[in-house]
Amino acid sequence: MRDLALRLCGMIAGVLVDLWPQFGLIIMTPRLELRLPREEEIVALAEVAARGVHRPDERPFLTPWTDGTPQERARIVLRDHWDQLAGWSIDSWSLGFGVFRQGEPLGAVTLRARDFVVVREVATSSWLGLDYHGHGFGTEARVGLLTLAFEHLGAVAARTEAFQDNHASQGVSRKLGYQPDGLSVDARGSERVVSDRLRLTRDNFTGWSQRPEVTVKGFPACRDMLGL
Ligand SMILES: CC(C)(COP(=O)(O)OP(=O)(O)OC[C@H]1O[C@@H](n2cnc3c(N)ncnc32)[C@H](O)[C@@H]1OP(=O)(O)O)[C@@H](O)C(=O)NCCC(=O)NCCS
After folding, report:
1. Angle, CA of 155, 158 and 161, to the nearest 5°
2. Within 13 Å and on the Cβ side, how many CA atoms surround 110?
3. Scanning 57, 61, 123, 137, which has the fewest C-beta atoms within 10 Å of its C-beta?
């Protein structure tokens, strides 16, 4: 009975990848696997967010999605995941990968683009559960996303944005060679906050000698969905 159930799950997973090939896209770094979470994994990922994404005295996001209760945070992770899947179009897409270490979810990283076929630029964002900060996972996951963007999609530049007081996010971008690309000023509640806009070109990224090895599987099947 169990064998039959497992075979059925495998068949359903195979059909899902045929219909939505992004589910077969896997980025492997030395310690991490980045991939779209399956329905049964998204709950575990949402629970990571529920346990906390940053210290209570920090507020790293403009959209205050981490301000609510643990249950509200978890629900936002679910809603964003479903939104990204349902809102997919060649003109505006968002790949919200779970970050897994030996099957355990640590957080999420997103690669998104508008009019990519013409513009050839991507943007990234990320969060890790609080327990996983400061071990180099954020840098390793970003390198995985950038490898997909520059070496497979054919992006010419990647953008990101971080508050000037977000030292961890700024640290990841600095290590990878992002260059200043202006400032944004926004309201964080009643507070005026300045963000650094940062930009990394393909040439600067490919020139980084300490890059960990990254393998990408399942990209060719995604070309149609990306308009490439
Ligand atoms: C931002 C985030 C993804 C970074 O991932 P991480 O795994 O913690 O970062 P890393 O360990 O890869 O650190 C990268 C660099 O930043 C530095 N850094 C990390 N945390 C730091 C901190 N709190 N203060 C100062 N520097 C810090 C590291 O020392 C490292 O540089 P080094 O190797 O030269 O020493 C993670 O901290 C996080 O999820 N934060 C909360 C959510 C968030 O801020 N998201 C981004 C919104 S723009």
Report:
1. 160
2. 17
3. 57
- Is the CB of residue 60 below 6 angstroms from any atom belonging to ligand 1? yes
Q: Which residue is closest in CA terms to ligand 1's atom 25?
A: 167
What pLDDT sits at residue 64? Answer: 87
The identity of residue 172, as a single letter, is V
Tokens representing 226? 């990306």
Quickly count: other Cβ atoms within 10 Å of residue 116's Cβ.
21
**Ligand 1 centroid – CA 134 distance (Å):** 6
What are the angstrom distances between the C-alpha of 53 and each of 11, 81, 110, 219? 35, 17, 15, 30
Helix (H) or strand (E) holding 99, with range, is strand 92-101
Atom of ligand 1 nearest to the CA of 107: 39
Longest dimension (CA), the chain: 60
The two three-digit tokens of residue 191, written as one number: 């507070």
- Which residue, 183, 186, 179, 185, is CA-closest to 197? 183
Return the residue matching tokens 């968002």. 94
Question: In this structure, what is the dihedral angle of CA atoms 177, 96, 56, 69, given to the nearest 10 degrees?
Answer: 170
Average of per-residue pLDDT across 161-174:
96
Q: Which atom of ligand 1 is nearest to the CA of 137?
A: 7
**For position 7, what pLDDT does the model report?**
66
Average pLDDT score, the chain: 94
Which residue lies with its CA nearest to atom 48 of ligand 1?
Answer: 162
Tokens of 56: 């209570």
Q: Is 190 exposed, middle or buried (0-12, 13-18, 19+ CB in 10 A)?
A: exposed
CB distance 44 to ligand 1 below 6 Å: no
